[in-house]
Amino acid sequence: MEYMKRIKLCEHLADQDSVSLADLPSTEILRHQVAQDENSLVRSGEPTQQPKPELNSQFSRDTPIVEPSNPNDIPVPQPEMFGAPPAPKTIMEALVQRLDKYKSEEAKAKESGNSSKARRMGRIVKQYEDAIKLHRAGRPFPRGDLPDPPGFGSIPLADQPGAAAPKPAQEAAPAAAVAGLAPAAASTPPKPAAVPAGASPAQPSPAAPSRSPQPPKVGRQPSVMSVQDKQLAALEKRQKLFKEAALAAKQQGQTDTAKEYLRQALGLNKLIEVSKAGLPVDMTTLPTPPQLIQQAAKANDMDFEIVSMEESKVTGDRAEMYAKLEQDLIAQVKMCMSNRTYFKEVGDIASSNKFEQMALHSKKDLDAVRFAFKRGDPVPKFHYETRAFSKVVSHTDLTDNDLELTIMSGINYMVKNPKDVDTYVKWEFPFPRDTPTIDKTAVVKDSNNPEYNSKHMIVVNPRDKGFQRILKRGNVKAEVWIKGGFLRSDTLLGTATVKLSTLETKCEIHDSFDLYSGRKPVGGKVEIKVRLRNPVVTKQIEQAQEKWLVVKFE
Question: Do residues 381 and 273 share a domain?
């Protein structure tokens, strides 16, 4: 009945009706009833709070492990179960702890005869030894590749400040240090701080929250750029320069040049992926962006040195000196026009324009010298300079798909009848791979120093990956054969091998090669020349020096 009355009172209050305070139960009655309700719950056998489940550290394989729903019920790990040392304070201490652990495991595995585990532990020991060497050298080491022993703490990101002198609260003092303390200091208990009269000793206030110890702030370590990072940065910079050059060439209307630069920029993507994977890249075989070529040309352009007076002094009468000046100026004009044409065919318009301007200046000096001679003026002052020019080597008489192979001559063949021997050369070029190109020269009679001068054109594709692989590892094989007589077969004198890897960075191979029978030299050489329009991988840049005449008119 009491509950029904209270329910009606609550309904009146919800309807905003007036309620008499005398009808409300007192607080003492409410407390008494709450206590009675709790006692009834306890008597009925319903616990007010569930006890925490106990987690046993020992378990069976057949019994599944039940994970508690509350994370706070998970027990704290016990490193002493695995024989783990205390948490390290420095990176070196963590690495040494792990190294000692794996060395002991390796020794146990060897004693028990477990060779598989011993080899595995040996590899891990080698990883940690390499990591310690890198850390001592101040270089980063691969943390993710190092396995952690069971129960060991993680490797700290940086050395904690004051780690060299650990606090006594964190680490137990050694027995020798305890024995060495002064007796007075050991026996005298610490005195409490003086408290003013009438004041109670200070107690921790419940309102003041306890500050949890904050981890030390890790200072910013100086970034050490490894060789791999420098290589990757250089590749990305070179690719960016090629893309900028392609965009500039497209804006100038040079579509073919822009496509070539873009093709070279995209060709660096695979090398960038290889560098990110940690493999080395040969930077000397990469193509050079036009910006770097122009910078090198500007650095070396118009560099000169004054030659000695004896070299620049022209002796003779007035007519001879004017004739000498005119001859040198005409040679300069021809040289400038030849270089202008060459650079225009190569595609270097900036260098072509530069040599055109130099040719115009030389023509003006030539006209001035001729007019001065006609007017009867004395010989003007002049001197000679040695100027250096950057030149991109290219065989413009060949197309991009042409390879010229020339068998020039034979040199001092070692035969029994040097004046009566008839020889020819049979050669083989390893492209295409399935059907190599094979041909031979004409027969040259009665000489052991024959002049073949046999030129052969081979169609290739420098952008083909198969052709590029052949250049890296392939060779041209040239066999020198002695022509047989009546009813006699031809005889092999020797074989020369020409390595093609030079064509990656140079556009011509011209040399004499020794003849071998297997691995045995048979004496004599054969002269061979191989030409491409441009090197396959990078451009060939040479420094050319010219003697330059400078005339000063007063």
Answer: no
